[in-house]
Amino acid sequence: MNTISFGGIELTILDLQRNKQFDCPEDCWSANNCYLKRHVPLNPTKSKFCAVVAFLNVKNFSCAGWSIDAGAWELIDTDGFAYRAQPMCDNLRPPRTMEPGNWTVSPGTQVNFMLAFPELEKEKGIAKLLYGKFGEMHSFEINGLNEEAAKLFESRQQALVLESTQNDLQLHQLRESMDRLDSLIYSRLNNILIPKEAQTIENNIGNECHRIEQKLRTLSKNKQDLVLRRYNEITGNYNTKLDAVREKERKSIDLNKKVASLSELNPREFEEYITELFKLLGYEKVTLTPQMNDKGIDILMEKNGKRYGVQCKRHKGIIGSPAIQSFLGAMQHAQTSHGFFVTTSSFSLEAEKMASQHPIELVDSIKLAQMIQQVLGGN
To answer: Which residues touch 84 (CB under 8 Å, ≥6 apart)?
Structure first.
């Protein structure tokens, strides 16, 4: 790949030569103490200079100046070793080639520049030329890496992603937004909410998604790639799951209305309804006792060799422990080993404590709705 583009900048490799030889000028004042020769050639001499040389062009289509920075460039050899770029010597650089580090490319202009990289051993080739700055990395692919070097390079990319996420303000803000979005979606899909609460959270989810998508449009493609995966993981299948939750909530509302409507039945009608409910739940020999002489037991039934007694209370107040005590006596008289106390209301803490000490299962309005749901085939 000879050209890469990002943020309105277009970089092109015009020439890339491995271990190019240069003749140094005889009158070079730094020949005896050359900075480049100390860092680039394998075997430096006074009259020769050898380096991997990249000749590049940059076009600036953005609205801001772009600095040519040699320190942002690296060469990766085919074994995965990295080499930092150096500005090319003024005496060896072609005319009208700008020096990296001392030149800013104005908007709407282009320049050429040259980079020098350390001389490579004979067995090594050029795998990649990298430009990395502000938490982003852009790569010119020259030759392939060997397997071990490829693993090293993958680790480098992962480290860069982590660094970018931690240090880049835009990505940090997006990460916070996605944390909020993740929390909102979890709350909507997993919590029991009244309709007003559910609508508020759904509105907040929509607003957060809109803000995140607006911010994503302002990022470079590399930065988008860093965050899009998590955004898609958070929002993936949200609408499908929300539809399922809404359907479950609708059924729950219908059940609650059904339980509430049971309070409008007369006592005998309520007992008849509970009798049919237990039959559908798989209980056997379900018998409604005589209305005038039930002795505290409204329904008798059996299951798995056990004999059950059921008391039904179509009630609007809280049922206390005296009612449970009375039911215990009725169970003993009817010779039942287990009991159900079914009501359209709720039980006091004392009643729940007493029932927990005996083989009695309390069925309040919530539990009753769950039993009805089970019969209807819901979860």
So the answer is: 71, 73, 74, 117
Name residues whose C-beta falls within 8 Å of residue 222's C-beta, 6 or more positions apart in sequence.
6, 136, 137, 138
Architecture of the domain defined by 262-376: 3-Layer(aba) Sandwich (3.40)
Q: Is 134 left (phi over 0), alpha (psi -120 to 50) or beta?
A: left
Return the domain boundaries, the chain: 3-143, 168-236, 262-376
pLDDT digits (tens, 9 = 90+) for 136-176: 778 888 888 878 878 877 777 666 666 655 667 777 888 88
Give the confidence band of 298 by pLDDT, cuts at 50, 70, 90. very high
- This prediction has a pTM of 0.46
Beta bridge partners of 87: 115
Query: Angle 365-376/267-280 helices, nearest 10 degrees?
Result: 50
Assign a CATH topology to domain 3-143: Immunoglobulin-like (2.60.40)
Tokens 């709705």 correspond to what residue? 369
H-helix segments, 77-220: 147-167, 169-190, 195-217
Between helices 195-217 and 169-190, what is the axis angle to 10°? 160
Phi and psi for 366 in degrees, rounded to 5?
A: -70, -50
Give the pLDDT confidence of 343-362 residue by residue, as tens digits: 988 999 999 999 999 999 99
